[in-house]
Amino acid sequence: MVEYVVIGGGVVGAATAWSLASRGAEVTLLEANELASGASGGPGRRGVRANGRDLRELPLARRALELWPELDGILGAPTGYRRNGLLRVYDVEIAGVSGWQSLPARVQAQRAAGVPCEIVDRARLDEMQPGIAEQVRFALYAPNDGTADHPATTRAFAKAAVELGAIIIEQSMVDKLAAGRDGSVVVHLATGDRLRATRGVILAANRSAPRLLGDSAGLSLPMWEKATQITFVTAPPGFTLNHQIGHSRRSLSVKMTDEGHVMLSGGRPGGWDPVSGVGTPDPEVLRSTMADVAATLPALADAEVVAVDNSRADTSTIDLIPVIDTVPGMESVFVAAGWSGHGFALAPAVAEALTTWALDGTRPESLRPFTLDRLGAASRN
Ligand SMILES: Cc1cc2nc3c(=O)[nH]c(=O)nc-3n(C[C@H](O)[C@H](O)[C@H](O)COP(=O)(O)OP(=O)(O)OC[C@H]3O[C@@H](n4cnc5c(N)ncnc54)[C@H](O)[C@@H]3O)c2cc1C
């Protein structure tokens, strides 16, 4: 018996285990493989950004950006966090909210949500980041955005959780959850063992969440698995990246890695088999990525490709924001998944808010947009 069981040792599960333990709760985290073996692992770095995010995520993103710079010190282990700002570039005007005509409105909304940002004109952009393609007219700069090392962050949360008394068990696959009569939840492990969670379960199993909720609660969770393809290229002589670069209408995000390579991502999925959990790089996606980078940072157009990776899958939802909610019929089970490529940056704030909800019983305002209901998630029973 334990007060809380956290299922999944990615960044969300590890951060929540730490957060619960730091408020005095008794926690056991069960991980099917090893820590950071899902979307929170793999090569490169992950963006920690609020700039350009869905407006409904901004309260969480703002809080996360307050927490990130403190984490190394609080956790007593490195997260690799670096705050170098993000330039989101705008070229041609297009219909909708991706064109430069929308910039003042976005600045207003982001600032109102507590996310500092400013419009940068072409002359200033050249000073801030030489080498941006000619057709770019403006950028939206958010100085508080940055990047961090995702597996290191996950392990840092886990280590700090253990130091506060949490138990972490790897190679421990959860098969099913069952509601106990007294409001507890019985966690069934693949070994046949059971663990009773007297106060709650945090389901942070990401791509296994739909299956677990289908089997345990008859719930159809409308999410799919997406293995974003990332490319690493050699930085040409003299090339420097002063900030992360994003693009308002291209699937492109540009970061420097610790090894001195340039990492190109942005959300295009490579091949992925959800049954085996194996990704296969897609040459067409690589071609599109290189075309996007050539149109944004021409110095990288002919850069040597050193690696392509799509070994990790995140879960996506139709409106591209996560589900963070309780499960109908199992109100002490909290599901947090469907990150749509944003879960890493948000994790410290999500963990804090989930902890408040689980311990105090009231859904924090910052989690209100992320209901199951909005997706038409339906019970099959
Ligand atoms: C290539 C790529 C680039 C990305 N870039 C960014 C970015 O720049 N910024 C950003 O914010 N986000 C980014 N993301 C998204 C982010 O990495 C994820 O949203 C985040 O890591 C999700 O964390 P998680 O803990 O929920 O899930 P995961 O890290 O997937 O962890 C889930 C864990 O649950 C375990 N598990 C599964 N089933 C069971 C079970 N039955 N029993 C026990 N354990 C189980 C798994 O083994 C896994 O370790 C990116 C994702 C990818 C793949």
Describe the overall structure.
The protein has 381 residues and is α+β, with helices and mostly antiparallel strands. It folds into two domains: 2-43 and 150-221 and 318-379, FAD/NAD(P)-binding domain (3-Layer(bba) Sandwich); 86-143 and 228-311, D-Amino Acid Oxidase, Chain A, domain 2 (2-Layer Sandwich). Helices cover 25% and strands 28% of the residues. The chain contains nine helices and 24 strands. The strands form six sheets. Strands 1, 2, 8, 9, 10, 11, 22 and 23 form an eight-stranded mixed β-sheet that branches. Strand 16 and strand 17 form a beta hairpin. Helix 1 runs parallel beside helix 6 (150-163). The model has no long low-confidence stretch (mean pLDDT 96). The chain binds flavin-adenine dinucleotide.
